[in-house]
Amino acid sequence: MLNEELKPASEYRVQRSIALRVAEAGNDAFMSQPTQFDNEDEAHYADKSGTYTKGVLQTGIGLVDLAAYASFKRALASGTAMDFEHIVLGGTRTQNGPQGGLAFFQDCPDSSQFSVPPAPPLASEEYAAELIELYWASLLRDVSFVDYATDPTAAQAVAELSALAAYAGPRDASNKVTSALLFRGLFQGEQTGPYVSQFLLKSTNMGALPVTQKYMTNAAGQDFMLSAAEFLDVQNGKAPVNALTASPAPLYLHDGRGLAAYTHSDVLYQAYFIANLVLNSFLSANPAVLNPGNPYAPTQPGAKTQNGFGTMGGPDIASSLAAAASAALNAVWYQKWWVHLRHRPESGGGIVHLMKTGSGGSIQAQLSPTVLNSKAVQASHTKFNSWLLPQAFPEGSPTHPAYPTGHGAVAGACITVLKFFYDGAFKIPTPQVPNAGRTDLVNYVPPAGEPPLDINGELHKLASNISFGHGIHAGIHWRSDTLTSIQLGEAVALSFLRNKVRSYNEKFSVSLMKLDGTQTTISNT
What we know:
mainly alpha; Vanadium-containing Chloroperoxidase, domain 2; two-stranded antiparallel ribbon; 16 helices; globular
């Protein structure tokens, strides 16, 4: 007897579909509505010297024209096209897509139902530690990660960051930052093995197209926004005078400049789509790569006569990555524009410049002496004859607020989707690293006692590689931007996946490891 739901043009099926959508919307509506808190820098500094204002008309370093700022805030308060069109800008650069934060979601809770903690306040020791880390990263942009252990500048960075109680990066068992932990993330597995994730190195195929992960990068020694005039022009949104020079040939990623260059022109979820292709290459050789809870995993009864495709298979994975990435991007845009308005690291460098040149009294925002007296700032001045934070790109940061980061939120969402479909505990087959010339890959030889690399750890590492590439290594995001945004992306993706699986005919329970190391289950049984 034909199931009533399967009859062509079945009214019963249509009603079931509508009921499912209504139930999902109802469930989402009952999700707790968090109170959104910022770090109060906008309220604390009446001249807005501690707030994001890039592209809005500036009257000096760290100083926005207050009438122009009022036009900017009026647009954010009303959300109307007319008010956005009347923001008073200082140059030709436009504000980068603020209205994305106001978009409603069809397939997970609203942007306003997610939250992140306030960013470190400008005068705090946490802010100082993050800015010190950024100065060191700018000095190490052209040093290969494998050379940190012997590089004298890296040694100075490690020593200074270790001594900062407020520094939030990883430390070893003796509470020290080491060259092996420098500029790494905090999540499980990120500190194991090479700095660059296997998912940014392994070759794969996109259909019939071979994919070798050598990337165009930028030539060494290019650092920008080092003069007061150039800095102010960029803050006003004027077109940069300087241009980037590309490296002569593509290379495997191996240093901070390479990761920064990757994120300067990547497609929204490019790294995670390619990671999926790499995982699919693993799957071709070993079906155990699938999450054991997948109804088409080798140990599941459904695998005897079927395979996943539009649900729980290749097309489902690819489309889920795109959908979760889009939702995470809009969620983080809401946080950026309507909650935090955190200024960019380049603005922190601008305050350093003012305070070190005797002009600190021109603005209300004042930094901790920890950063002003740091070895990082002094070393940067010795090299560049400038107190400003060296930027990897002529235009500095994008024209949207820093906190949290879009790259990080997309990362958190996409790696969560991949963990849902694939077994996070699966060991990476034959890990590889670039050779000395960065032109080929060689097998990675781990030190004695190092645990094997697995999918979870390398996905966590991938998320930080991309978000730190766009942040710490480029000089355009703070460490805390990345940490909170990856967690935000995870929360969005989990909500998205829980709603999505309710529509599937297959019944299953899938478990995955969250960023905090705990297990969570997504089920429709």
